[in-house]
Amino acid sequence: MKAGSLRLVEYRTRVMIDAEPSRVWSVLTDFESYDEWNDFYRKVVSKGHESDRIRMHVTLGKLKVVSIERIRQREDNRILSWGVDNVFLRSGVERRLSRTEGGRTEVTGVFRAAGLVAEISMPLFGQHIQAGMEHFLEALKKRVENT
After folding, report:
1. Which residue among 12, 17, 23, 24 is the one 20 to 30 A from 88 at the CA level?
2. Beta 90-99 vs 105-114: how paired, if at all?
3. 62: phi then psi, degrees, rounded to nearest 5
4. Which CATH superfamily is 3-146 part of?
5. What is the C-alpha to C-alpha distance for residues 35 and 30, in angstroms, rounded to an integer?
6. What are the angstrom distances between the C-alpha of 98 and each of 42, 82, 95, 103, 126?
7. In what order do the strands lie in the sheet with 90-99?
8. pLDDT, tens only, 80-127
9. What is this structure's pTM?
10. How far is it, in rounded angstroms, from Cα 109 to Cα 15?
11. Radius of gyration of the chain from Cα atoms?
């Protein structure tokens, strides 16, 4: 069965942060400090350039997993996305920053997955991914606004 014929799973999150996009971006792309302020991505290792590998230590409920993906898109102060593409799974995370009135930044997060691995794993871990994404954006907000 082709991955394209399987169901697409998508989770969306959003947060408003009282800071300019450049400030949010600096925290979002400081992978070395992730372990200081969030529990979802316990550790992230990457140089952060487009097409670079990104190694993430992620907490999914009680399970701790390591995912090795590639940075798909990086537009400073606007978009950061990464994902995995293979015959069994096409998945990815996108973070999009938009400046709003009053110097605030809206951050949207989207997780998408399709393929055989997604069909099997999303019923088990989807709720943890959604909760982790929400937690991450709230932690990002707190980190940016309090530092």
Report:
1. 12
2. antiparallel
3. -90, -10
4. START domain (3.30.530.20)
5. 10
6. 26, 19, 10, 10, 26
7. 9-17, 105-114, 90-99, 79-85, 63-75, 53-60, 41-45
8. 999 999 999 999 999 999 999 889 999 999 999 999 999 999 998 999
9. 0.91
10. 9
11. 15
> Could you tell me whether strands 90-99 and 79-85 are parallel, antiparallel, or unpaired per DSSP bridges?
antiparallel
Nearest 5°: phi and psi at 36?
-80, -20
Q: How many Å apart are CA 126 and CA 113, to the nearest integer?
A: 10
Spatial CB neighbours of 90, under 8 Å, sequence gap ≥ 6: 3, 83, 84, 113, 114, 115, 118
Q: Which two tokens stand for residue 70?
A: 């590639």
Fill in the DSSP letter of residue 7.
P
| Vertex 92 angle, CA 88 and 95, to 5° | 180
Rounded to an integer, what distance in angstroms lies between the CA atom of residue 133 and that of residue 136? 5
